[in-house]
């Protein structure tokens, strides 16, 4: 059996989970708090999550590698990375990672500022009982490490929002008159962009607990609605409701 080490709410982890689910690769998910994840990834030669331990002992330390590994289990016409579109898909997967870096900072900024009380619930999703207790007592340190490590502050937020908007202009342009980002069918490009934009869209059928968008304060609602209104936001909602749903 494969073991997927995650921070469950992480959008990079959702990308890996979705690809494995789409390919029918069986795995057990082992979720951890941010920061505490390193006690489980570093001994396996990794740092961040997702990290996949394969039954033969091989370790995949990057979400794009996990998507490619999952895709190797698929055959045409279900492939996430059809050979003819490989180059374009790789380009969009890289762009999706950039989207993920900036959407994460914007979302953390809003979460800490307006929804601080829901941070523990979100970060502790899927974590074992003992680690939940440890995570609760270390929560101030974990939040501090996230804020410092990812530069989640007013300035960082403003920079990331601008970069995110530019990246999404490109996605919006690419989607003009099209349902999918590359070619005529769902691919790893759609999966990656939708997953990495998801924390700002709150799509249904996300594979982890996200705070209830309907209960969120007006500042967060306004942010989500602004991004949901864009073609890239609509694409994210559509990919999750039409395609992620059946793979959960
Ligand atoms: N390039 C990596 C990035 C993954 C990443 O940034 N993961 C974050 C969660 S969103 C993480 O594990 N952070 C905890 C840490 O840095 O130890 C990938 O695609 O797998």
TrEMBL record:
Protein name, per record: GST C-terminal domain-containing protein
Coiled-coil region: none
Entries under PROSITE patterns matching the protein: GST_CTER
Pfam families: GST_C, GST_N_2
PANTHER family cross-referenced by the UniProt entry: GLUTATHIONE S-TRANSFERASE TCHQD
GST C-terminal domain: residues covered: 112-248
InterPro entries with a match to the protein in the record: Glutathione-S-Trfase_C-like, Glutathione-S-Trfase_C_sf, Glutathione_S-Trfase_N, GST_C, TCHQD, Thioredoxin-like_sf
GO MF annotations in UniProt: glutathione transferase activity
High-level lineage: Eukaryota, Eukaryota incertae sedis
Species whose genome carries this gene: Palpitomonas bilix
